[in-house]
Design a protein that fits this description.
Elements (H helix, E strand, L loop, with lengths): L2 E4 L4 H4 L15 H14 L5 E8 L2 E11 L2 E4 L6 E2 L4 H14 L21 E2 L2 E2 L2 H5 L20 H10 L14 H15 L3 H10 L13 H5 L4 E2 L5 E2 L15 E2 L1 H11 L8 H6 L5 E3 L2 E3 L4 E5 L2 E9 L4 E7 L4 E7 L8 H8 L32 E6 L2 E8 L2 E8 L6 E2 L3 E5 L4 E4 L4 E7 L5 E8 L2 E7 L3
Antiparallel strand pairs: 1-3, 2-3, 2-16, 3-4, 5-10, 6-7, 8-9, 11-12, 12-13, 13-14, 14-15, 15-16, 17-18, 17-25, 18-19, 19-20, 19-21, 21-22, 22-23, 23-24, 24-25
Helix pairs in contact: 3-6, 3-7
Amino acid sequence: MTFGLLSGRSVESIFKMNPNSFQSLPVPGNDEILEILAKRVDRQKQAIGIVVGVIEPNGRRVAAYGNLAKDDARPVDGDTIFEIGSVTKVFTSLLLADMVHRKEVALDDPAAKYLPESVRMPERSGKSITLLDLATHSSGLPTLPGNLRPEADYSLEDLFQFLSGYTLRRDPGSEHEYSNLGAGLLGHLLACRAGTDYESLIRSRIARPLSMPDTGITFSSSMKQRMATGHNSMLTAVANSCLPAPLAGAGALRSSANDMLTFLEAFLGYRESTLAPAMKAMPEVRRPAGEATISLGWIIMSAHGREIVGHSGRTGGFCATVGYNPEERIGVVVLSNASTPSGLDDIGFHLLDPKSPLANPEPAQPPKQRTEICIDPGLLDNYSGRYQVTPNLIFEITRDGDRLFAQGITQAAGHAIALPQFELFAEGEKNFFARVADQQIAFETGPEGRATSLILRRAGRDMPAANRLS
């Protein structure tokens, strides 16, 4: 693998020609960061290339390790383009905060206010879904619209049709439930209010004012040349994500480490910006979200007496983590060209809080040999359905004749990105395995034999999932 060490300014100029100056700062030095990245890429096989950016009171620096792709020996660096997935939601919420500051919208505006009259926005107990509800994942809307199908075009009309027919299961604002649909809808509504499309709004209100030329959805010719190739959990190359336009605000953006450092510079007050009032207001609005707190766009956690503000993102081939410590005015961005179970959150937390331990993910192993048995094909009908494995992953089980198939649908960036379909082979009446990866599925059935849930075993980890169609 190739090492890279890049910065907007040279490391020597920032630290007065003394590389050991890194060690006296809260964030580990670049030598230590590169050791972490080399282990994650070479030994743990969790990425092909990783880029880390750090912003501190003394300046900014970038440490990079690995390559653009398995078959591309070019090293990743601070200008390499990555998909940032759900980190897009921070940009969407920044648009909201800025439009509130400009008095173009209000946080308590009903979402229906910015929809055509023909669209019936779901309500419950006389309560309307507000823009704040959408930004804080407390709207009551599901993770994704039920009529979103992999590999199929998804239009604005499809979105409106789903909203008009959906029944909320809880009151708006009453409970936190992560919703890519809600974030995508928020981006669309803000773009409608501004009289433009989502990407144009991002460029005019955020990217251009902050001098972030490599942040957007559409590739410039330069971005295309510097785009990393995404890889799945088995480090197989995958195509770039393509999020339907109505949901772009949930996870469609691409960016570089250098652009994301510029973004954090503005949040930390190192860069003057007209967005400063909106950035200051974002973490001031808070709602509970499990063990953490959610603000406008950001997740806020406490660790060892430090408050960490951050967000992570994942697509079919990329992981991203962005965060900052407002008190010590340090920020970190970590970008990877692989979507692996371990992700990058542990690296981001460790760099912001060295007391937070690093994960020790096991490298991908080839599937062990298993024995297929014959079962009654009539049993297969009991297992079809869509199973919610995690907020970011749905498994769709389908029958084709005497064969059973599974297809993962990743959702972490608001996408309905269909992973390759694979066949399941029976090793018991309710137990199946895949030959293409180390994955097994055990179905749990009700009194009539219909599957109510499944347990997905992947890389030695059991993940239960309810059948959403049962």
